[in-house]
Here is the input.
Amino acid sequence: MEFSEYFPIWNQLKPWQQETVSAKVTFRTVKKGAMLHSGTDCTGLLLIKAGQLRAFILSKEGREVTIYRLFDRDLCLFSASCVLRSIQFDITVTAEKDTELWIIPADVYKQLMEQSAAVSNYTNEIMASRFSEVMWLMEQIMWNSMDKRVASFLLEEAAIEGADLLHITHESIANHLGTHREVVTRMLRYFQSEGMVRLSRGAVELTDRTKLELLSEV
Here is the structure.
């Protein structure tokens, strides 16, 4: 499938705008673990064809916290935050799985925003959605206990992977949640003692979803 089939408002662009984008957009295939964007670099907008990306922020102490994840057909706007007037987002974007994507140059997209009300409105919708995710994250960090956050993360990860056996390390979970590995390990061992999960090297298996769901909703 071509770029035009993945870009939601392609049909709302004028023919000459479509030609400009087609001439400038580039296609890339990246491996799991590859870094696509760091800091405030104006990488360009990332439109995912297939795969999974993770956007996260890094504290001064070197702790990571995931702010959102991107899947098939998602568009990463903050990797080109220079197109947003007076707004800069110091985030890092990496590939969580082997990923195929298109990169729309920031200057091309900025020009489209200035010329097309449809593109401008679409961009505002993405911004509102991302800010909602960030606000949700802030609420989780500020008001929810770590056991609830870990339980919610495991359930979300199982939904993404479509499986109860998650090949993920305690360190990786800690990075997603912005905490220390030791804290996650302690929580997972407690979950295991309560029959909610089974731990093995490099993996966590959900054994009682009902208990995890009840814990995440407390």
Notes: Helices lie at 3-6, 15-24, 106-115, 117-143, 146-161, 170-177, 181-193, 209-217. The first helix runs from residue 3 to 6. The chain has eight helices and eleven strands. Residues 1 and 49 are 9 Å apart (CA to CA).
